Predict the structure.
Amino acid sequence: MSVIHTREPCVRCRAPSVIHQRYSGRYLCAVHLAADVLVRVKRSIRLDGGLGKRPVLAIVWEGQACLSLLSILVQVIGTRPGMELVLLHNGCDSPEVSKILPQLPSTIIIRTEEIQGRSIRDSVLMTGADRMIRCTTLDEEAEQVLGSLLSGSWTSILHGPDLSPVLCLRPFREIPLDELRRIAPEMNIPIENEAYPDPDVHTFLSSLTRNHPSVPFSLIRYQDRLCDLEKNHLHRTG
C-alpha cells in the first residue's frame, strides 16, 4: 500500500518525503503524512456517527495501533473539557498507563477497565459510554475480511454481535499500519510490534497488495456493500 524510505520531495511542501502512498500516488513528509492521517481519522469518526455528547468514550484495547489511536484521538477531542477515556482490555493485554499518561492533557481523564468475561457491549455500557472505539487498522480490517473468505465462513462478515445501543467507531479503518508507524516518531508515540493474528493471511494480503495497492480498500468496501445489501433485504422482508 505504501513504500517507505523514499528520496522524492513531499507534494505539499517539497521537503524530503518519508513515504509513498502507492494507492494515492502521493509522496509525503512526516509532518504532512501526520496531517493527512488526522484528516482521514476525523472523517471516519464523522461517518461512523461522531463522538456524541457524553463525556465518556470506551476504547477497545486491541490490535497493533492502540497507542497511536490514543494519541491521535486526543488531538480530535482537543480541549473538550471533562472527557474520560476508558480503556477496555483483557487481563493479558493490560495497557501500560505509565507510558500513556504523560502524553495526555490535564483536561482528559484516563482509566482502564478489565472486561472480565462480559460482552464488549455490556462492558461499554457499564462505563457510561454510548460510543465504542476500535483500534483496528486498514490492514487488520482487510485481513479479517480476507480470512473469512478464505476459510469459507463469509457469513461472519455480515453477522457481527448486536451492539445496540452502542455505536462503533473505527477511526483507523482506512489507515495503513505502516503509515502509523512512520508518523510515530513525529508524534512521540512508542512503536508497537505485535504478532499478526493470522500470519498466513497477512502474508497473502501483503503479496496481493504489492501489485495492487487498492486491494485492502476493496475488501472493506466489499464488506460494506454486503452489509448494506443485507440491511436492505431485512428491511424489505421485515
Observations:
- The chain has one domain: 31-237.
